[in-house]
Amino acid sequence: xxxxxxxxxxxxxxxxxxxxxxxxxxxxxxxxxxxxxxxxxxxxxxxxxxxxxxxxxxxxxxxxxxxxxxxxxxxxxxxxxxxxxxxxxxxxxxxxxxxxxxxxxxxxxxxxxxxxxxxxxxxxxxxxxxxxxxxxxxxxxxxxxxxxxxxxxxxxxxxxxxxxxxxxxxxxxxxxxxxxxxxxxxxxxxxxxxxxxxxxxxxxxxxxxxxxxxxxxxxxxxxxxxxxxxxxxxxxxxxxxxxxxxxxxxxxxxxxxxxxxxxxxxxxxxxxxxxxxxxxxxxxxxxxxxxxxxxxxxxxxxxxxxxxxxxxxxxxxxxxxxxxxxxxxxxxxxxxxxxxxxxxxxxxxxxxxxxxxxxxxxxxxxxxxxxxxxxxxxxxxxxxxxxxxxxxxxxxxxxxxxxxxxxxxxxxxxxxxxxxxxxxxxxxxxxxxxxxxxxxxxxxxxxxxxxxxxxxxxxxxxxxxxxxxxxxxxxxxxxxxxxxxxxxxxxxxx
Amino acid sequence: xxxxxxxxxxxxxxxxxxxxxxxxxxxxxxxxxxxxxxxxxxxxxxxxxxxxxxxxxxxxxxxxxxxxxxxxxxxxxxxxxxxxxxxxxxxxxxxxxxxxxxxxxxxxxxxxxxxxxxxxxxxxxxxxxxxxxxxxxxxxxxxxxxxxxxxxxxxxxxxxxxxxxxxxxxxxxxxxxxxxxxxxxxxxxxxxxxxxxxxxxxxxxxxxxxxxxxxxxxxxxxxxxxxxxxxxxxxxxxxxxxxxxxxxxxxxxxxxxxxxxxxxxxxxxxxxxxxxxxxxxxxxxxxxxxxxxxxxxxxxxxxxxxxxxxxxxxxxxxxxxxx
Lengths: 494, 323
Known about the structure:
A: two-stranded antiparallel ribbon; B: four-stranded antiparallel beta sheet
């Protein structure tokens, strides 16, 4: 039998073994196909690379006659899809924001009084003049579609004593031609979610003894919760961590009232909430180590695991039950700490958005579950309690302490000058930082809260679209849990 | 003919060790084509030297380990793919009993009973009866961490019997128990067996196996080398020669040859401490009266005669290549 035939046979065999998950696999294939269609829809109906069009404009300086030309014809209309790079509220022309008759190189126009009350949007690099004040209608990082028309006008300006005639082409739009991309995205995302959950439901229906094993998950989880919550170690850790989070909450609230020039100034309540996320992550990741040490290693040492394995319970159920139980052991005190921290933050500062508060709590619990599952992987694979603690501390140091240093190192390796002033505002650096952040559950938590403080999911946070953040929020716990169950199941082969 | 409740067919199991990149660095074959039958209602004693594969076999039966190949069939059904179904029918008592120290006996029973989908009332009712049967009733509200080893074993047995299993699998059940505990356990097991429970136990204590079991299987190097009922073994023992250990003086080679020639009696000289010699004679039981007369007539001074019955130990050592 040739290599190709062997591979086909192996694949067929593997596919047949996964009969239970066929509906889910097929639904995922459909979701991916729909996602491709989704992308194709935007590519075919909008200009998804506005920066290129803006970059291709020709500025010709012929003595005192300057022209700004685009490749498109005057009167052409294009629907652009892009990210609002700056907040519209800062881009509204007011009579105290410019001197009429002056030429702006960045915006490629001459200021005049008829610009008052209009907004110059920066949509993924292209400048589009909107004949309206868009403050509080749209916000920075939102992904929008905007139908703009190329127009031409002539103006003059003084260029160091010389009068220059500028024949300029530029893009203009009306306020009613701007929409959030989520107005179309939602149809695709809803369809994708429906397909996914249908596949998942059909697959779960094929799982034998699902109801019984789910019951056993809760039975084991309740047991772990009762044991864990009474443990002196957890009581001490809980008190210390709660006080820490409360302290940080109060501090972040207070810093909202501080000096705006200060490096520690917190701009607004939503920003403070995101920073509080980091501190919650900082302490619960340590708590996750604390609870996971005894989860498998102690059971092996005390020989309680063999009696448990002889009971009618799947190995996966044991892992999931412990994960749920231990997440509750950390999550319930963490919930109290989160609420108290919030209260102190609000008391000292402003009130964050309601969606942000809900995200802070709910995503926080998801993050706790992720960290517990992560630690369980070590607890299952390690052969001693010391190993569990060392691996756990190593991961905590990496994710909570030295992650930024890692970003700087990688940015430097990719050619960014990290010694320059203000390098952190370099879009390239921000893109690296945000993409790497997807590999850190703490950052994913912060991003998710940041995303959900907005009114729409059609957001791009420094190169990471909103849907990707939510996908990461879901994939992290699933991946960690799946790895833990796989590691534990592997032991049945001896 | 007793119906087979458990049938192990050509089961193989190899333990493998891998390095970080997944390359196999060592392997050990624990089971090499094991075949074994346990009938319904038997108490089956599973014997073997250390490393023979007893614990591996037990772990495969109860589903903690998966065999690499072969079949384990319980009541006509293969356990592959039906693990949970069979775990409901099997009770397990491990050698090293691990229980949660902070729980009381009652709480332990409630916890483990929860895995069998039994109602709290039923768990309480059965638990109470089992604790009473095993002498733990008055200690049922004490924490397990305060229990002695014997008490823990009895509690673990209660847990194993909570779901009224059809098969009870026990790994070295008498290990760590005092003689009183061993006797109590023996009585309980025999009582349970009378009520229809099939018991499989592995043990090193051959006298216990002889006392408790109805059938014996001897395993070595991952294979079953002998399977017999205890009655069959007893008959074999009776057919074999009896050994007499004698402390004598002046036992010569000539007498040894004479014994072998006349009565086919084998003599083995063990040691000579100057005062007397230790000689072991292998002979049929009917020759015992004759031998003493013979030796005395030959002028042999007899200081002591000790009969040494052939036992299961002899058979075990012979089958497993020990001496």
